[in-house]
TrEMBL record:
It comes from the Bacteria. This is histidine kinase. Gene3D superfamilies: 1.10.287.130, Histidine kinase-like ATPase, C-terminal domain. GO terms for molecular function: kinase activity; methyltransferase activity. Residues 124-341 form the Histidine kinase domain. Keywords: ATP-binding, Kinase, Methyltransferase, Nucleotide-binding, Phosphoprotein, Transferase, Two-component regulatory system.
């Protein structure tokens, strides 16, 4: 939703003008709104009438408060209301911002800032670890060749094994920054089908992967391998969280694709965007990590590297997109948004 705007007649609060965003939210045409008492569209009309009186009497230049905006055949939407005198004498400007939209934008901006900070930290840290790690492994190999005791040799092999494990972790951290962006025409449903087949090979029993596709979505320019990896990481995370339901033959993951119009994310507004959602019926993301699931090395399960979602977010952001997550017990919904041409 964009900012909702109404210009009211100061005398009686009648609507003189309503923008398209307000029309769409209320489900009423501009013609229907013109001349109507705008206070009647709010859950507490008296608050707006008091504000209009205050602006009219010049008790204050502007007043801001929270209210509920009624919608046709829907529940009211919580909004921030700002009431101020308009430039034209005798009119009052009312602006409304949906609270959910504002909170979402703030969350998106926080995610983008965090992702950028994490990217720089990871890259610098990985490079700092890489050089001494090679030295440790080389020294352990030389030590292994010199040692005669089998027991001591095993200790050297442990050092080599752990150095290799850490090297693999470092390589994964650096992977998004090493490989060039290979862009071509991509069909998002080919990506989804590839991920679906890979996951069902890993979980042939007890897991259902449902399709809910909008087949009209056009091809777009993207790195196919990166998108497959991003979606695969999310779906594999979901499957791992569904282990108990898989054992009970009741696990469901849904791949849902749609086109979103006039979408705002990543501090920009796009005419069209791809919305790809991965929805599962698992236990949900633990509350302790819900706000940190895209942080590197944060995992909700024992033995997890905590890199899957971090890399998925990085790959999607390289396509100027964003991943969001809403999770409650019984339903976890990862939402990928990518601009379309």
């Amino acid at each position: 939703m964009s900012t909702l705007v109404a210009v009211l007649r100061a005398g009686d609060g009648a609507v003189q003008f309503a923008n398209a965003a307000l029309e769409n939210t209320l489900g009423l045409s501009r013609r229907t709104l013109e001349g109507a008492d705008f206070a009647s569209f709010l859950t507490d009309p008296a608050l707006l009438r008091t504000a209009l009186t205050g602006v009219r009497n010049r008790d204050f230049a502007a007043l801001r408060y929270e209210a509920g905006l009624k919608r046709l055949h829907q529940d009211p939407v919580p909004v921030h209301v700002n009431v101020a005198g308009a430039e034209q004498a005798g009119d009052i400007l009312v602006e409304l911002w949906p609270i959910e939209q504002q909170a979402r934008q703030e969350r998106e901006e926080r995610l983008l800032d965090q992702a950028q900070a994490h990217k720089e930290l990871i890259r610098n840290l990985a490079h700092e670890i890489k050089n001494p790690l090679g030295g440790i492994r080389g020294a352990a190999q030389l030590l292994e060749m010199e040692l005669e005791s089998r027991e001591l040799t095993e200790y050297a092999q442990v050092i080599i094994h752990e150095a290799d494990r850490l090297q693999g972790l470092v390589d994964r951290l650096l992977a998004p920054h090493r490989h060039p962006h290979r862009v071509g025409d991509v069909n998002i449903h080919e990506v989804c089908e590839r991920v679906r087949s890979l996951v069902l090979l890993e979980y042939p029993q007890g897991l259902e992967v449902r399709r809910d596709y909008d087949t009209s979505i056009p091809e777009f320019r993207a790195d196919r391998a990166q998108l497959i990896q991003a979606v695969l990481n999310i779906v594999q995370n979901a499957a791992q969280a569904l282990s108990e339901r898989i054992a009970a033959d009741a696990a469901v993951i849904t791949l849902h694709t749609r086109v979103v119009r006039q979408a705002t994310f990543g501090r920009k507004r796009y005419r069209l965007a791809l919305e790809l959602r991965v929805i599962d019926n698992g236990p949900g993301v633990p509350d302790a990590i819900k706000e940190r699931i895209f942080y590197p090395l944060v995992s909700g399960r024992d033995g997890g590297s905590g890199l899957g979602l971090t890399l998925a977010q990085t790959f999607v952001q390289q396509h100027h997109g964003l991943i969001e997550c809403d999770s409650v017990p019984g339903c976890t919904d990862f939402r990928i948004l990518i601009p379309l041409p």
